[in-house]
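User: My instructor asked us to take a sequence, write out its structure as tokens, and then describe one feature of it. I'm not sure where to start. Here is the sequence I was given:
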Amino acid sequence: MSFEDEDEETNLNIFKDCLFNIAIERSNPQHGRKKGKSRTARAGATDAVPDASQATEPSQLVDFSDFLANEVFPSLPKELQTISHYALQDNVTLSDRWSLPLSLGTYEELADRIPPSVTDSLQAYGLISPPASDVQSFLSPVIAAYLLAATTPPPKWIETKVSACEICERDWVPMTYHHLIPRAVHAKVLKRGWHEERTLNSVAWLCRACHSFVHRMASNEELAKEWYTVERICEREDVQKWAMWVGKVRWKKR
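Assistant: Let's start with the prediction itself. The structure tokens for your sequence are:
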């Protein structure tokens, strides 16, 4: 999977969360009642749109939101699908176009790309009720929330420190940080295109015993190429057995 594909997959999940949150908000009976009128009353319809006094259960919106996100997300510009903090930093044109707040014209352009079936689905769930509300009014806060989440700068690695080892889960032993992509092979990693430069300093917080075990299980090159996340490391059977054993060792009192 390429870096761009990884960004797109991650961003799709972010988009799903943002869409779900807005759908929950819009399905609330109190939404749009600031002036004492329901969405149905403002739309002048009594039978085409579900009664706003009846909120859709959150559980009913989970699958619907996933379906809707899978319909909407692919219709967005490719650069928006793969947007990230680093993408905005590295590309002035991209930053000018997608930095918040977006213009009304941009929201209109995005709404025009949405498949007509999405409009029907939103109406069926009472999330929009034309002419009082439309796809653009629903999509705009979703896009804004998505951009904010997708382009938020990552935390400094020291700020990711946890209280328990990420392998054995012991929390009564000292923590050390393990460079998931060993510094000794950074130049080779970049030359061979294994990872982007922005990921080179990613770390895991491990106890000293687990830290030593990880460096014994594979060479620096193998760690960089194959075992560059805690999740990947913990999938190994030898690591799982090690974690079960060392997790029972209490060489230091709480």
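For the description part of your assignment, you could build on this observation: The radius of gyration is 24 Å. Try explaining in your own words what that tells you about the chain.
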